[in-house]
Every structure is written in C-alpha cells, then in structure tokens.
Design brief:
It is a single chain. The protein has 3 domains: about 1-170, 2-Layer Sandwich (Beta Polymerase, domain 2), CATH 3.30.460.10; about 175-250, Hydrophobic Seed Protein (Orthogonal Bundle); about 295-405, cca-adding enzyme, domain 2 (Orthogonal Bundle), CATH 1.10.3090.10. By secondary structure, it is of the alpha+beta class. Helix 7 (about 185-200) packs across helix 11, helix 14 runs antiparallel to helix 15 (about 295-315) and helix 16 runs antiparallel to helix 17. The chain contains 23 helices and 12 strands. Helix content is about 55%, strand content about 10%.
C-alpha cells in the first residue's frame, strides 16, 4: 500500500526479534495488556514512538504509546477503563491507576474529505483526525526515529522510513520536507533539540538547516505549550545539552529573547558561566531523583535578562530598590508574551531575585527576618551559584552558611560583637536610634 503523502516514499523493512534489542521486559505490563487485547480483538497493535526508540539505544522507556487500526470508539468498546480525549488529535487513554497507556488510531497526512482536518493559512495544523493505514501513520510522524513500530504478534520492528538505521547512526531526521514540517508545527524545532540532547544524537543536516530562519515561528505557538516544552527541555536531566543546542541552532533568541540579548552583550561570559553551572546542578539533581522547582529554573534562565534590565534602569538614575522591582516586573511581563509562566512560579522567581540584595545586610533584625523568609533557602542556593560568575559574593556566602548553623542566641551575640567591634557606624547608628524610639523588649525579641 502506498502512503497518501506523495512527497515521501516508504519501504517496509522488518527487523526480526533476534536482530534488535527491544524486549518485553522493557515494556510496561499494562502496555502489553493493551497490545494483546487489541490483537485478540482482531486489530493491529503496535508499540510506537519514544518507547521503541529509547529501548533501542539502551534507555529505560517511561511512556508507552500504542498505535492501532482500531478507531477511538472501537478501542473504548474493548476497555472499560478507557476514555476518549482531545479535539486536535482524538486519542484513547486506557487508565491503569496512575499509569495511562495512550492509544492512537493510524493517521493520514492528506484528507480525502472523509476525515476531520484543519490547517492554519501558514501551514500549521489545527486539527488532525484523518485516519489511514500504518504506512500513512509512519509518514505523518515527525522524526524517523519516532516512526518505528514494535509488533506484538511476532516481536519484530516495522520500519517504513529508515528510522532503524538513523537510530543506529544516532541521527534525528525529519520525515518529509523540513521547512513544511516545521511550519505545520513550529514546536518541532524544540523537539528536535530536546530529543537530540536527551539521546546524544546529532540533528541531520537537512533537518537542522531551516531552523535558524524559521525560529521566529515559535512566537505563533501557544505560550502554555512553550512553558511545558521548557520544562521538558530543562527538567529531564539534559538541561546543559539542551541549552547549548538551543544556542547552536538559533532557537534561544526565539524562546528567551531577553536572556539571549543579555548573554550576547556580557563580554566577560560570567552570566553564561553561571547559567550553565546552574543547569548542570539541575541535571545532577534530576539524576539523583531530587526535586527541582520551575521557579528556581526560570530564576536562573531569566537572571541575565534581569541583570541587564536592572543596569539600564540604574543608569537612568532610578533608586536601586525601585529599579530592582521594576526590572523584575519588566522581565516577567516581557517573557510572558512568549512563555506562559504561571504566577505560582513567577512570583517566587521574583522573590529569589529581590532577596539577593539583602544578603549583604548585617543588621540583626534584617538577618533574622531573611533567615525566616520562606524563599531563603532557594535564594541562598542562588547566591551560591553567583560565585561562578564573581567572587565578590564569597564573604556573603560564608556569613550566611555559618548563620544557618548557629543558634539564634549565638548568632545574635555575634552580630552584636561584629557591629561594635568593627566600629561600623552605619550599622551601629540605626541600632541606637531604634533603642531610643522602641522598647528594649522589642529589640531583645530580635524584631
């Protein structure tokens, strides 16, 4: 059977079980249940996409997608624990507790009038529910490495577009004309970078060539979708590789425009060193199965933009505290036009930035207030990162490291001794004025 897309030719290659490394031991038992049930129901049943790709390169698949010639309604009839979702892509979700096996009907690229397909005038796909054959389905997938089908009937792999060879050669190659495919869905450019970073693949030359020119198309993508793609780029354990590939392929300025501009103008490279050090720490935390807050991630990613905005406002003569607040707001508002950063992350991100200026303060009241701040630990960790850009924060890091280890009484006594012993009139004078205006009990309580 020939595919409907005339621009892509297919040639079936069957890789028998003894010639590939995908094993049922690598596949979720629930995914196997779905595959066998579909097969018993008289339908074709294939594990497809990332699970097959990852198993071939020695990874450990976590998500298992199934492709079939059964319609969504037929899938629902086979599984009581099934729900149908989606408008752009109608899918069946078979639910096993916390695990969901996604089942998609084979789709075609071209609508003969019997299906449900809608495209934007620029070529972007808005709705795609045109069903077809397995050959059609292979052609409409994005990358050849994602168009491999593991057949439950004989445990072979079906390859229609050369994906098996590309996986062996560690190449990300788009199926079809790259420019057309990117215009259909600009987020494919980010997926190419993310998957190449994750798998340590290279992006094939023709697939990479149009990316710098088409990168501005990302502005047409839904900001909420770009936020989710950012989390996948930077919180999957390959943040450094993802960032470097975004730079290499001209995508950083489309995704984080103000950060890209700030890094380009930072001649010393200090901001980039700090950013990469922070992303390396993120990768290490993911590897150790430790949590990473999106608020901290975006505080890191947008810090160069914040610093650049702050310097510009101060150069205009704005008071430091006001400039800090204004810079935080400006950077956040501008970035929200591209990436929908939820307030539950953007507000803590701004707090991390604004707390940085308070680490140089040594007045007892302010020290204790900062230690009790709910964002103190994140802000302190951020201060540690700043050491990779400049040693000027070394004394602050040491002070606050010790402050966290001391008891309240010991810290209070040390602050008193340092204030008087240093002859620091800037700290001592305000303390004397407070004592004249306020009761001694308030000072003793550390307020």
């Amino acid at each position: 059977m020939t595919p409907q897309d005339p621009n892509v030719t297919t040639s079936l290659r069957v890789i028998p079980r003894d010639q590939h490394s995908v094993s049922r031991k690598d596949i979720s038992p629930n995914a196997l249940r779905v595959l066998y049930r579909l097969r018993e129901g008289g339908f074709g049943a294939f594990l497809v996409g990332g699970a097959v790709r990852d198993a071939l390169v020695g990874g450990h698949p976590k998500d298992f997608d199934v492709a079939t010639d059964a319609t969504p309604e037929q899938v629902r009839a086979l599984f009581r624990n099934c729900r149908l979702i989606g408008r752009r892509f109608r899918l069946a979700h078979v639910v096993f507790g916390r695990e969901i096996i996604e089942v998609a009907t084979f789709r075609a690229n071209i609508d003969d009038g019997s299906g449900d397909r809608e495209t934007h005038e620029g070529g972007r796909v808005l709705r795609d529910n045109v069903f077809g054959s397995i050959e059609d389905d292979a052609v409409r997938r994005d990358f050849t490495a994602n168009a491999l089908y593991y057949a439950i009937e004989d445990f072979s792999i079906r390859d229609y577009v050369g994906g098996f060879e590309d996986v062996q050669n560690r190449l990300m190659r788009l199926i079809g004309d790259p420019e057309t495919r990117y215009r259909e869905d600009p987020v494919r450019m980010l997926r190419a970078v993310r998957l190449a970073a994750k798998l340590d693949f290279e992006i094939e030359a023709a697939t990479a060539a149009p990316i710098p020119m088409l990168a501005p198309l990302l502005a047409e993508s839904a900001p909420a979708r770009l936020f989710e793609e950012c989390l996948k780029l930077f919180l999957s354990g390959h943040a450094v590789a993802s960032f470097e590939r975004l730079e290499r392929h001209g995508l950083l300025s489309a995704l984080l425009p103000e950060t890209a501009a700030a890094l380009a103008s930072n001649r010393s490279g200090a901001l980039r060193r700090m950013l990469l050090a922070g992303l390396a720490g993120t990768d290490q935390r993911v590897a150790n199965d430790e949590p990473v807050s999106p608020a901290f991630l975006f505080a890191l990613l947008l810090w160069p933009a914040y610093c650049r905005s702050l310097m510009a406002l101060q150069a205009r003569g704005m008071h430091t505290a006001e400039a800090q607040r204004r810079a935080a707001d400006q950077v956040t508002v501008h970035q929200l036009q591209r990436i929908a950063l939820p307030r539950r992350f953007s507000l803590p991100m701004q707090e991390i930035w604004l707390l940085q200026s308070r680490f140089s303060q040594r007045q007892r009241k302010r020290v204790f207030r900062l230690l009790s701040h709910p964002r103190f630990r994140a802000a302190y960790d951020f201060l540690l990162l700043r050491l990779t850009a400049s040693n000027e924060h070394a004394a602050d890091v040491e002070f606050w490291r010790e402050a966290q280890l001391e008891s309240g009484d010991a810290l209070s006594a040390r602050l008193e001794a340092e204030a008087h012993g240093d002859g620091d009139t800037d700290d001592a004078a305000p303390r004397k004025r407070r004592r004249r205006r306020r009761s001694g009990s308030a000072v003793a309580a550390g307020e």
